[in-house]
Task: structure prediction
Amino acid sequence: MTADTYLPGASSRRRELMNKVPEVTLYFWVIKVLCTTVGETAADLLNANLGLGLTNTSLIMSALLVITLFFQFRARAYVPGLYWLAVVLISVVGTLVSDNLTDNLGVPLEITTAVFAVALALTFIGWYASERTLSIHSIRTGRREGFYWLAILFTFALGTAAGDLTAERLDLGYWLSAVVFAVLIAAVAAAHQALDLNAVWSFWIAYVLTRPLGASLGDYLSQARADGGLGLGTVGTSALFLVVILGLVVFLTRTRRDVVPPEPLSPRAE
Result:
């Protein structure tokens, strides 16, 4: 599932494209968790604090995401600022998709969690059936990029629903919930290193788990002390994390430390 394969006779444009996503480094995971936290706090800020409401917030953020993805798809290589802007926006939209189903339509969290899990699984099945790989080191065609961003959207929606379900059923509180998900991510990393868990599945499992981890951290920082948080508010938390994300993205843009080295292309096995 990690082989980089291409169809015989692919066009020169398909072969000239650089990989469109960053290398998975410590920077990647730090920014991803920060984006996840912003997705949680920004959605709350726009929905409740600014009074836009869940529906209006969903429409506005979805429109911004579509515009950003339009330019992301047009880019011929990985652009840190553009890529991470898309991740921030898709984290907000993924959160809102789950919240709309739960709050506006009254769908139980058990059902939304199961539905998003199935949707993510079907995305992976379609991706692999079409491309014979799920490797993020080979996002060099429009079709692969489409599968990639669809999978990212469902990971955020699934992480939101699963995180909310866990928080409601176990009532662990923000800080303890963050610790639980951090331990689960560490367990996945350990299984990959010690037990040779497949790298592709290790990545995607950890990617899903970082969503409730970031949400728990965001709630812990933003919620009032009386509710178990630090009381920084959604404005303060969102601003703080966005500044850190911006600083890291500028650093990566200048150093190019997360650019995936080019891999040799090979025809798809028949």
The beta strands are 5-6, 266-267. The chain has a mean pLDDT of 82. The longest strand covers residues 5-6. The first helix runs from residue 12 to 16.
